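Justification of resources, computational component.

The compute hours requested in this renewal are based largely on the per-chain cost of generating structure records like the one below. Each record pairs the submitted sequence with a full structure-token output. That output is archived, and it is also reused by downstream analysis tasks.
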Amino acid sequence: MPTVLAALIGGFLFGLGLTISQMINPAKVIGFLDLVGDWDPSLAFVMATAIPAAAVGYSLARRFHSPLCALEFSQPSQTRVDQNLIAGAVLFGIGWGIVGYCPGPAVAGLGLGNPATVLFVVSMLVGMGSYRVLQSRIVNRPRPA
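The structure output for this chain reads:
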């Protein structure tokens, strides 16, 4: 139960931060990404505060031998930059620039009931599911003898 409560509190705080910073507003995000047009620098302040806050959190976490709500810390299984990471980052950036949403703010924005947000989240989930299906078929396909 403490793990579920911690997840709910963390999710609520994350969503609240995204809402207050207007990261759930695609027009605001696109305005920030539009460096040659009507640039809106206000989201730079979000990053300027989020990065030090995350650094403090990581610094505090290093002092613990194990996390408070799990058996062990989870580390990335892959630490090298490869073509899949680069391709994924490029697709993510293109999608973010076109639509003005990335996954966290889109999920937080579902509460507003905007049909475009719902369409984005459904499309995102379909894309994630399709990737998993295709990836498992590629990994499990028979090899020529």
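The chain has a mean pLDDT of 88. The radius of gyration is 19 Å.
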